[in-house]
C-alpha cells in the first residue's frame, strides 16, 4: 500500500524512531455522513457528492506524536514519531451487517458518527459499540471498557450540524420524540424519570459537532483523539 513506501521514506530521511501504524474504525448508520467527514479530516475540504461506501473503504491520515507542540503528552524524550492513522470507513447499510465483522481486527480506536437531525442514529450507536466489542480484536486494549465493553479509545461526533440548526426542533426526529414523551406522561403511562426507547443515551465525549458539507469540525479534538490512539500502543 502507498503509505508503506511513505513510512520507509520518512524513516530513511530522519533516521529516527520507526513510523507507527494504528487503525481507527469510523462507524454509524448509513447516511450520517461518515465518508464526507473522513474526506474533510483528510483533505480539509467538503465533498460535493460522496459515493456510497460498499463494504469498507480505507484512507490514511499522517500525524506526528512527540513532546514538541503537545505539552499534554510529555511522557517521552524530545524525539517525535510519525504515525499513519488508518481510517476504516465501515458501511452502515443493513446489507453488510452479516459480513462487516471481517473489518473488525486489530482495532486501536473507534470514531462513532451520528446525524444530529436524526436522533435514532445516535441511539443506534449502542448497537454499533456492542457489535464491535463482541466480534472485534483490539491492539493495546484498555483495562476498563467503554460503551458496550469497547476496550479502546473512542470519540463521538454529531454530524450535519448545519441541517439540525436550520430545522431547529421543528420537524426533526428529536422533536417527535419529545412530543411523544409529553403526551405519554400526560396520559400517566410513563413517569418523568423513565426514558422512551428512542432517547437512550450514548456517551458523547463532550458533544463534538461537525458539518461536513460546510467543512466544519473540531480539528483540535479529533487530532487529540488520534494522538491518544497512537500513545496506547507505545505505553500499554
UniProtKB/TrEMBL annotation:
InterPro entries: P-loop_NTPase, Sigma_54_int_dom_ATP-bd_1. The keyword Cytoplasm does not apply. Belongs to the small GTPase superfamily. The keyword GTP-binding applies. The lineage of its organism: Eukaryota, Viridiplantae, Streptophyta, Embryophyta, Tracheophyta. GO terms for molecular function: GTP binding. This is Uncharacterized GTP-binding At5g64813. It comes from Olea europaea subsp. europaea. Keywords: GTP-binding, Nucleotide-binding.
Amino acid at each position: 500500500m502507498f503509505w508503506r513506501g511513505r513510512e520507509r521514506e520518512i524513516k530513511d530521511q530522519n533516521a529516527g524512531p520507526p513510523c507507527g501504524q494504528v487503525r481507527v474504525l469510523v462507524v454509524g448508520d448509513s447516511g450520517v455522513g461518515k465518508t464526507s467527514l473522513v474526506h474533510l479530516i483528510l483533505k480539509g475540504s467538503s465533498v460535493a457528492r460522496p459515493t456510497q461506501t460498499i463494504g469498507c473503504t480505507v484512507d490514511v491520515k499522517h500525524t506526528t506524536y512527540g513532546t514538541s507542540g503537545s505539552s499534554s503528552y510529555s511522557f517521552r524524550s524530545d524525539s517525535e514519531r510519525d504515525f499513519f492513522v488508518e481510517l476504516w470507513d465501515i458501511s452502515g447499510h443493513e446489507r453488510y451487517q452479516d459480513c462487516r465483522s471481517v473489518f473488525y481486527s486489530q482495532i486501536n480506536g473507534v470514531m462513532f458518527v451520528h446525524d444530529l437531525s436524526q436522533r435514532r442514529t445516535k441511539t443506534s450507536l449502542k448497537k454499533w459499540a456492542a457489535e464491535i466489542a463482541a466480534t472485534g480484536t483490539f491492539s493495546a486494549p484498555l483495562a476498563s471498557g467503554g460503551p458496550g465493553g469497547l476496550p479502546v479509545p473512542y470519540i463521538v461526533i454529531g454530524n450535519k450540524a448545519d441541517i439540525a440548526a436550520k430545522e431547529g426542533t421543528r420537524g426533526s426526529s428529536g422533536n417527535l420524540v419529545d412530543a411523544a414523551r409529553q403526551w405519554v406522561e400526560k396520559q400517566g403511562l410513563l413517569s418523568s424519570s423513565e426514558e422512551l426507547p428512542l432517547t437512550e443515551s450514548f456517551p458523547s465525549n463532550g458533544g463534538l459537532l461537525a458539518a461536513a458539507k460546510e467543512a466544519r469540525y473540531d480539528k483540535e479534538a479529533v487530532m487529540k483523539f488520534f494522538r491518544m490512539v497512537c500513545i496506547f500502543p507505545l505505553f500499554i
